[in-house]
Amino acid sequence: MPRVLDCGRHRFDLSRPLVMGILNVTPDSFSDGGRYVDRARALDHARGMAADGADLIDVGGESTRPGAAPVTEEDELARVVDITATLAGEGLAVSVDTRKPAVMRSAIAAGAAMINDVAALTAPGALAACAQGGVGVCLMHMRGDPASMQQAPTYTDVVGEVRDFLLARAGACLAAGIARERIVLDPGFGFGKTLAHNLQLLRALPELAAAGYPVMAGLSRKSSLGQITGRAAAERLPASLAAALAAVARGAAIVRVHDVRETVDALKVWRAIEHPDVLPDALPDALPGA
Length: 290
Ligand code: 7PJ
Description:
By secondary structure, the protein is of the alpha/beta class.
């Protein structure tokens, strides 16, 4: 695996897992209920996640939840570009979650560090848009599209099909001039997958990681966790932490989460256990009362 992830101005050391904080700027995102549509609140939430230890802030102006309606380019640009420019101007590494080449180009011009595309840069012009500017790219696997993807998805070999698709898309990126160290792969949990598919993909994460690209895992508050626990989206923090740790233990380099502070703590504990040689220097030998 490359030891770094190159996102232009931001170069990430991958010797520890990275945390991407989710900033939904859609009116209908399922787990935030549109609370961050308001600009000032969106910016505050992003700054809070950065202060809590998020390495990247993923700004999304198009809901890709199952059954979500498409968003016009104009609406998506209005939701995403100014927030990206403001946060990037403050030095934050901003990822923009979009499938649209025009949004990619504007986001990159506004200072985005990464383009996170649930369609893996398959839209005409998306590869060319990302080749410029040195941004990182996250290539995610999705079966079908958000409107229909959860209608009885079937695979012969979900792990092999997802891996082959992602490696083909990584190859397309390399051919378009996107350097290897700028590419991240994501199996796309919940995107045209049943609970059984998601669990198979999570168990097989080491196989995907072995392909040599950093792997991102997005399980935070997802419906699979609700199926397992019986909890509503707002009650899925413990489930999300368990899923994030399981993903990192299987080789995920980046976890995409709503609950940054809690995830960062969980990962610190995991890392202190797994990598005792690299204890954070903030760890005192003895804490009073601990
Ligand atoms: C993902 C995403 C994911 C990547 C969403 C949600 C649905 N991008 N965008 N991976 N999920 N790369 O947050 O529940 O899993 S939107």
